[in-house]
């Protein structure tokens, strides 16, 4: 049903339509509205056969989720930033045990210094933990991704993080078509766990695995992650068939045919980039855009195919590896090995700094003119950093 | 369920890991010697029949008991229960009332009319038992169980020996005595009463394959005491025997008994029942030296009998006698003080000890008498092959129980001698001490006390003084047994093994150590209440 | 002289079983068909008190719940020695959580059961003293505050045993551990105010809190059974001596637990909704020395001679417990 709603509410309603059985979350900006929305639905009886647990920390939130999922319940939680880190130990446990939990990460910068605004440093910090990471471009996709995520997770026995930019998406009002519970039931069958805690058929879940078998366990997880690439596409196709729109999937290309330069990005900035690309194309530039939905597993084949033919790829990242450079860039570079493509990294939007069309345009024009460094921080206050660097280096 | 590789395991898959390989020692179940068993002169397996009585299996318990001792109802009334003296429970609260339970079983058996089957097969051999006292009856019983033909000859009119002619009715009712003796008679033992044996060798010529002599010590020890012409001086044994035979000996109103043993007590108490106003016991030494049993003495005192310690009788007159006070010298020996006292006395009864009448030995010098007792070897055989002896006529405690023990022992050796075999001597087993038990597990429960007739009431008649236990108290009492050294299936070992390495085999079948998993920690041995487990090295 | 009623059978209620009792009067452990929730083949040390405690508690829980039980286990000795791939010695549905989150994971299990309308399956969470009083305290408090329907069992062996006997918040004063060695001016653990979880649990006013030891099996089983009659957060604190960490003979494990209660150092009691309702009376009181001298983690208190100051201090602690928890029969 098409409604003008806050992103968080859209997600809450989409999650509710999936009939989760256990919801647990600890408040942290900017995810709070999602869980508040869900708590109301549970409390007023709209969402039945669902337990809402007010936990005492994010670590507890993921722990409760693990316990619930291991008992065969469809489970949901949400967090961001510091909260994601606080539950890091448990996140690895969830993926290690193959529990199909779906969690919203309302992307927010990780402190110190403390910063409550959007960037991708939180989910990027957990890129190796064995969870799927799907990034929403807009609130429609955010809602849809949760529904698709449950199917992917439960069929693959891998937990999924649905990443949506904090405040930018969570707190934005857009028109969203939120599927009904019945519609979702057609798409998403009840959860049939691969393994479950059942007194009638008891098992011991969570053994200690030693050097002789640990590698194999990890290898199997690795392969399963790779296998989920196909699953992501399959589920997106099914979704399109039933709901009539293309959301989810591995990536989306925009005006990339014959483009000399392709910008690759994740999340809400794709929307801004579309406008910039339209403008630049009108002005005669040869530029296209690839919006990456699935960051984990990284769809090497699909990215390679999408970038084939271009001369230059610019990876816009809302996070980076301190002292090293871009994160997504590294995966992209591997995907385009041997194609003779030049890759440039643009770090933008850290800590919630707005990414303007003007700034983007300015950078892209220079980039297409080979006038930029390999690694650029968009809108960097050079005067300030130069002054500070001089001071710091004098102290060293 | 499709278990993910390595992360999820099937339940109980650890059974593949045989942790038994870790240990350097392991526990074993043992049967150790309980102190009561060791102390019983009749060799009863006390712990065993108590165990059976505990769950109400009285017949089973009784049959186990009579395997060693055919007279539990009698024992329950006359035995001095040395088992109770050494009972480890005494260190916890009070000794188990073994004697009471034995009496209960004995009485219950009589009530139920349980019989002892005659032997299945006859050996064709015949043994003569001379003397139908406890030793003789016991020997006859055991020999009969083994299938031998047994003839008991006794000079008196009724069987029982000192049980009848020495122990008064109020201690041992005659119905009980008769019933238990009849029960063994019904096994096919032949009694020839009023038959005195003048020469034991004749018996051998008669055709008996062996002889067991158990004639007791019938003669009163005498001592010279100056007396007047019409003084009444009687022998305790004779008084008791005459009374048993239906006579009422004339003792007078004031009776003095000379001696400090059980016979002295028995005759003093009988005198009172026969109407004596006063009964005074005079004993040369002090109480701790008096051989009478404590319980007997207590009862006597309660009945109003007075005791003059450290006194000797100097002169017996017609209606009084003179006693001299003694005093202990530095060596603890009583010495005359020269102080005298006159007691009113219508009669003096001597209870100074008993001696054996060896006239039945005939003239054969082949039967050795040492210090007034028949000399026997470790097999109860005299110096004459085939002639055995036991009871009061040989060396040993002069109690019914000891005599019963002699009879059993002699029977075993007679049987072995007849079959020309040697019995293996059993290794001496050290009894379980209190410190070896884990007494935490036994709740405190004092000994149920048998009822006793009011002292005054009981002096007037010969009804049995000490009533028995009823069933619930008997059970209570039996269940206080700590089962020293013997498993009583408390399940402790089964429960305390951290490795679940003990198997419970079922009621009555005990337990088994699962050597695949036992790590040898030893908790089971430490927590066994009865010390019925030990650790044995694996190295 | 009246006939005394038979109140007990030879070994009363202290031994594991008794052939003279009816089946329903015996302990769960005496039953040959007991669950053996923790069965043979596990890798615990010889004489491990925790292995015993876990089997006792879970067998009782299985009996009380009609075998409808799910167990969640924190990281620690119990988890490590019971599930090294490929062997699991558990015979109940079991999930290993992490170190500090067993209460929270158990909350999740309970929530899932409720959501599915399953009101018969019950949940037990278990962890050692380190997992309970230190790293997992937050999660435990959260579970208590929400009154989630979980029975949390703490197996207290008074240190981080699995990692090599390091001090935890539950390590008693003067005890030697790898991080409170018996050297220096104040050998062993320092005298602090302790972190007594049973009272912390009572402060949360949860339906049921109890302490127990492996030395009194009947009491432990009764408490587990009783705990299962309540719904909501429940806490059971079980003392489980560790021969390795405490430096005691492997055969003395139960004896030492017994001495802990009989000296007053470990009070055994129950509390409902934050108020103490019963305490187990001391049967045979002993001085703390009897308990301490069997453990070499206290050896420095007796050699070269008895350290009167420290031992007397420990005795005062024991005496205070006796008064506070009413451990002596009037």
Question: Can you tag this structure with a few keywords?
Answer:
heterotrimer, B: 539 residues, alpha/beta, Fumarate Reductase Iron-sulfur Protein, Chain B, domain 2, FAD/NAD(P)-binding domain, 4 domains, 5-stranded parallel β-sheet, C: 330 residues, Rossmann fold, disordered N terminus
Account of the protein in words:
The complex is a heterotrimer of chains A (396), B (539) and C (330). Chain A is an alpha/beta fold. Chain A is built from 14 helices and 16 strands. In chain A, strands 3-2-4-5-7-6-13 form a 7-stranded mixed beta sheet, with helices on both faces. Chain A has a 6-stranded mixed beta sheet with strand order 10-12-11-14-15-16, with helices on both faces. In chain A, strands 1-8 form a two-stranded antiparallel sheet. In chain A, helix 7 (139-156) packs across helix 9 (211-243) and helix 10 (269-282) crosses helix 13. The longest helix of chain A has 33 residues, at 211-243. Chain A is globular and about 65 Å long. In chain B, the strands form 7 sheets. In chain B, strands 5-4-3-6-19 form a 5-stranded parallel beta sheet, sandwiched between helices. In chain B, strands 8-15-9-10-11 form a 5-stranded parallel beta sheet. Chain B has a 3-stranded antiparallel beta sheet with strand order 12-13-14, with no helix packed on it. In chain B, helix 6 crosses helix 16 and helix 11 crosses helix 12. Chain B has 18 helices and 22 strands. The longest helix of chain C has 17 residues, at 308-324. Chain C contains 11 helices and 8 strands. In chain C, helix 3 packs parallel to helix 5 (137-146). Chain C has 330 residues and is of the alpha/beta class. The chains are: A alpha/beta (396), B alpha/beta (539), C alpha/beta (330). At the B-C interface, helix 16, helix 17 and helix 18 of B face helix 1 and helix 9 of C. Strand 9 (203-205) of chain A pairs parallel with strand 2 of chain C, so a sheet runs across the interface.
Molecular shape of chain C: globular
Strands of chain C, total number = 8
Structural class of chain C: alpha/beta
Q: What composes the largest sheet of chain C? A: 8 strands, mixed
Can you tell me the CATH topology of the largest domain in chain B?
FAD/NAD(P)-binding domain
The assigned CATH architecture of the largest domain in chain B is 3-Layer(bba) Sandwich
Question: What's the CATH C level of the largest domain in chain B?
Answer: Alpha Beta
Give a count of the beta strands of chain B, DSSP E runs of length 2 or more: 22
Average pLDDT for all residues of chain C: 94
Taken as a percent bin, the fraction of beta residues of chain C is 5-15%
In CATH, the topology of chain C is named: Rossmann fold
| Average pLDDT score of chain B | 90
